[in-house]
Amino acid sequence: MAESVTTIDADLQRALARSICRKVRCVWFGTPIAVAIETMRLGGLTELPVMSGGYIAGVVTLSALTDAIAAAGDAVAARSAPIGQVLTDERSWRNLHTGLYVAGAATPLAEIDAYFHENPTHQVVPVIDPPGGYAGVVTRADLAACRLRTLAPARIGGMATPLGVYLTDGIHSGGAGDWGLFLSGVTLAVLGIVASLALTGLGTLASLYVHSDPMAVIAARLGGDEGRLSSELGSLILLPLVMILIRLIPLAGYHAAEHQVVHCVERGELLTVDAVKTMPRVHPRCGTNIATAVVLFSAALCIGVISWKTIVGAVMPALVLTVAFWRPMGAFVQQYFTTRPASVRQLRSGIFAAEDLLSKFRADVTAVPTVRTRIWRMGLLQTMGGVIAVSAFLSGIAYCVPALRPYVSSLF
Fold first, then answer.
1. How far does the chain reach from its first CA to its final CA, in angstroms?
2. Looking at the structure, do residues 122 and 195 belong to the same domain, yes or no?
3. Which of 99, 157, 285, 350 is most buried, judged by most C-beta within 10 A?
């Protein structure tokens, strides 16, 4: 037993606040009480940092807010009342005059743990990082999870690969490794080629009907330059076509499993097949959202240029349209195109990746990421390597067989 306690204390001494602090939403003196209450409710917190002029001014408690609501006696007045009205009494919040404790990003967790022991009613310690100011909070629950080694990273990213699910916290990774990410790039490049060939084939069939290039006909009817608009319309169709093809291959199932297991970890659920399969397939941080935003902006810009005959007049409406609809459209594309219900095998792949990542994170919670590590763990370089490899392979074929050069060049 003594050895176990010593090990825990050693872990807390080595680990720093930046390793486990969570960037929860803070409040200001002008923040309405209703917003603060909702932030606490959704975050599972009973205390929130209060900011003033870019600095942490104190910590407001749930009990102080509920007392203010009771004193108001009117729901409408209480909802709109600013936090500053609650903080007039120094006893209602912790601030510089009442012994506010703020940890630095490099503060050992053992010091924060000692503070919690000395102040049993306090639940949250704000954390600051001098270059960027407010960094987040450390709670009692975070320290308890650190002691139990059940702590999870604050944010997890990942990718679907032909070899299974890949997950990362920016420092560690789990599941499919670099080879799987490379094969993802190969797969996407091949799907792009298939989509390009399909688009060319559909254009050829359509030209037999209209006796002309259909893209050129559409461009001509829109009143623009035929060559440029034809190329732009083809590019706009290509990416959605690739998304449709993704739905037809196992990669879409792994993509769903990736999202579902990340949801499961972020919600603190058990990593079982039954639990993971109940999670949504749509995730707000999916790269599909960015791809959808690019297509939406490009399409809106193209239509705007045709309508107003100028790029300057088309940019702002295209930007407004993209900002308004990219997330709901991205969620729609995720649900019906880039993911599909995962099989049990695919769900288990996601669970394996999550367990692999969590075991590495918990064994090395003191690790501090470097910029190079973060960039590499994102997986984009390995994926791009797969795309480049396919391009180089086809270029090599075109070099060796000159007769194929026109066909290969048309794919890019």
1. 64
2. no
3. 350
- The 3-state DSSP class for residue 275 equals helix
- Identify the residue whose tokens are 């010091």: 111
Q: Are residues 257 and 127 in the same domain?
A: no
Do 128 and 268 share a domain, yes or no? no
| Tokens (6 digits) for 280 | 């949504």
Contact between residue 156 and residue 169 where contact means Cβ atoms under 8 Å apart: yes
Walk across the sheet containing 93-95 and list its strands. Answer: 27-28, 47-52, 55-61, 93-95
Complete DSSP assignment for 277-308: TTS-S--TT-HHHHHHHHHHHHHHHHHHHHHH
DSSP 337: I
CB 322 within 8 A of CB 293: yes
Domain shared by 168 and 209, yes or no: yes
Query: 3 pLDDT exceeds 50?
Result: no
Looking at the fold, whether 217 and 348 belong to one and the same domain comes out as yes
Residue 153 per-residue DSSP state: -
User: In which domain, by residue range, is 383 found?
Assistant: 157-281+339-409
- CA pair distance 124, 137, nearest whole angstrom: 6
Determine the Cα–Cα distance for residues 269 and 275; give it in Å rounded to an integer: 7
Residues 128 and 181 in one domain: no
- Residue 250 sits at φ, ψ, to 5 deg, of -60, -20
Interaxial angle between packed helices 140-148 and 109-118, expressed in degrees from 0 to 180 and rounded to the nearest 10: 120
Contact 198, 410 (CB under 8 A): no
Torsion-angle region of 124 (φ positive above 0: left; ψ -120 to 50: alpha; else: beta): beta
pLDDT in tens, 236-276: 677 788 888 999 999 999 999 999 999 999 888 889 999 99
pTM: 0.74
Tens digit of each residue's pLDDT (9 = 90 or more) over 132-165: 688 889 999 888 888 777 778 878 999 999 999 9
Q: Tell me: the pLDDT tens digits for 280-292?
A: 999 999 989 998 8
